Amino acid sequence: MSARAWPIATLAFGVITLCVFVGFNFLPAVAAAYEPGRLAGALSLFQRAETAGDLVRVFGLPPNQAALGAMHAVNTLDLWGFIPAYAIFLCAGAMMLAGGARSMLALLAIVFALAGAAFDVVETAAQLRITADYDQAPAQLPIAPWHWLKYGALAANAWVMAAVCLLGAQKRWVLGVLCALPLPAVLLAWLELTPTRLFSITFALAWIALLVVAFRALLAAKGATAPGQTA
Q1: Which class for 162: exposed (0-12), middle (13-18), buried (19 or more C-beta within 10 A)?
Q2: Do residues 149 and 119 make contact, with C-beta atoms less than 8 angstroms apart?
Q3: 69, exposed or middle or buried, with CB in 10 Å at 0-12, 13-18, 19+?
Q4: 0.90 exceeded by the pTM?
Q5: 3-state helix, strand and coil shares in percent for the chain, rounded to the nearest 5
Q6: How far apart are CA 161 and CA 98, in angstroms?
Q7: Which of 37, 51, 56, 64 is at 20 to 30 A from 88, Cα to Cα?
Q8: pLDDT band at residue 101, thresholds of 50, 70 and 90?
Q9: Coil vs helix vs strand at 101
């Protein structure tokens, strides 16, 4: 493939991922149920639900139908939009950083990205079954194990990409350091030593940095920046 193919794929699907993420908050069902800034906290609680009591914390008792509708809309978009977009974004990013499929590190990063997406599909499908038929919700619990497996795999993907950035011939120090952050952040959150929003921030920083590197790589491939320039 050409030198531009992987940066283009990384950049395109990274932008799609970002747009879908922002779009969650603008869904009509979300606007009808949550004030601005409230969705993320409720969604995180839903994803970490283990008991019927956890669901009550998210939806109330009796369950708030508007909240159920909002979560169903969010998870539908997640399943069909966000998950495929970020999976391709991370796979393309690994190929871009490692210079193709010959690198074992690139292949390992792809395996972790696809594993994270697969765990996400299981998690999201369980949530959709709950919001579609709340009376049968207990049969879908717990959701939390899939949540942690998802983020553990995605953190491992970031860790491998950090290794590519920091140990490879072409050093990308900023991206490498940022990609090293999600794994310890996820472990600390899983141990309940830090809030979950902390690891969300580390993922956001790493993924945005990957977007920047893809953009710079695309410019370099066009001859618009100096060859060998790194981020």
Answers
A1: buried
A2: yes
A3: middle
A4: yes
A5: 80, 0, 20
A6: 8
A7: 37
A8: confident
A9: coil
Residue 28: exposed, middle, or buried by beta-carbon count in 10 A (0-12, 13-18, 19+)? exposed
Distance CA 211, CA 152 (A): 21
Give the whole-angstrom CA distance, residue 166 versus residue 175. 9
Q: Which helix (DSSP H) or strand (DSSP E) does residue 85 occupy?
A: helix 83-98
Question: What is the C-alpha separation between 113 and 98, in angstroms, rounded?
Answer: 15
**Strand, helix or coil at 51?**
coil
Core vs surface per residue 163-174: b (16+ CB within 10 A) or e: bbbeeeeeebee
Q: How far apart are CA 110 and CA 194, in angstroms?
A: 28
Tell me, what's the pLDDT at 115? 98
- pLDDT per residue over 13-27, tens digit each? 999 999 999 999 999
Measured distance CA(42)–CA(74) in Å, rounded: 12
Report the distance separating Cα 116 and Cα 42, nearest Å. Answer: 21
Contact 71, 21 (CB under 8 A): no
Residue 89 CB burial class (10 angstroms; 0-12, 13-18, ≥19): buried
Amino acid sitting at position 107: L
Count of alpha carbons within 13 angstroms of residue 39, beta-carbon side: 24
Distance CA 31, CA 66 (A): 10
What six digits make up the tokens of 100? 């193709």
pLDDT tens-digit readout, 179-191: 999 999 999 999 9
